[in-house]
Amino acid sequence: MRLDIITLHPELMESPFQTSILKRGIAKGLVEVHFHRLRDWGIGKRKQVDDEPYGGGAGMVLRIEPLDQCISHLKSQRNYDEIIYLTPDGERLSQKTVNTLSLKENIIMICGHYKGIDHRLRTLHITKEISIGDYVLTGGELAACVLADALIRLIPGVINDEQSALTDSFQDNFLSPPIFTRPEEYKGIKVPEILLSGNFKKIEQWRQEESYKITLEKRPDLLGEK
Ligand code: ADE
Question: What is the pTM of this model?
Answer without folding.
Answer: 0.94
